[in-house]
Task: structure prediction
Amino acid sequence: PPGDKQSLMAALPLDDVPAAKVYLDLPLFGERLPQGGLTELANRQRRDYGLEVFAPVVTGAADELPEVIKALQARLGTDWGDEVSLFGFSAGGAAVLLALAENRVAVRDAIVLNAPNGLKGGVSAFETATSQDYVWSAQAKTIADRTDAVRRADEIASASLTPSLLLIHGKDDEMIPYESSVLIHESLTTYYRGSSARLHLELVDRLDHHWTDNSNASVELIREQISKWLRCRVAPQ
Result:
């Protein structure tokens, strides 16, 4: 949790950010669960976590982003230009980082929370949670390279708008160790020249992976950090 768009909207309403907020279900989550629901999702994870879960969720979300933006522009009658900001939690965060690296949508600002460093980080979390060893195929290794934010740091930083990026990670994250975000931050620092106004890492004490299950104080801190990051960059409507 929050594992669907309604739960995320309740956890992160961003009412004080003067912008249109759009909450999307990731592929295979929320209203987009496959036939068979969570049982089928668990079966796919057992068969091949990388190819049947991580890839369709993370690369699927990044791949569909250009069409999402086009659909929203048509629906809202607005040419957003460079006014797109992205937020992603966990797998959604990995999808945000991939979207930045591949630069098919001009993104001005991004926030990722408790995100793995691509498929390698996701597999590590899978192995920890299930006590199973993941068997790497050539196709999975290709996806790991594509989604490796550290490896693609120069592409993230050189995207068309050089997006501002806020990395938030709980120090008590039991699934994705906070060192994942530390590595991503370190790999990007050279390209951002250490500018905390454009690139910032926030490690949060006593925060685990499922952040909405934490104390009200921790959740409120995250809300405030994200809102402040966006308010500093979003022009009043």
Q: What stands out?
A: The CA atoms of residues 1 and 213 lie 8 Å apart.
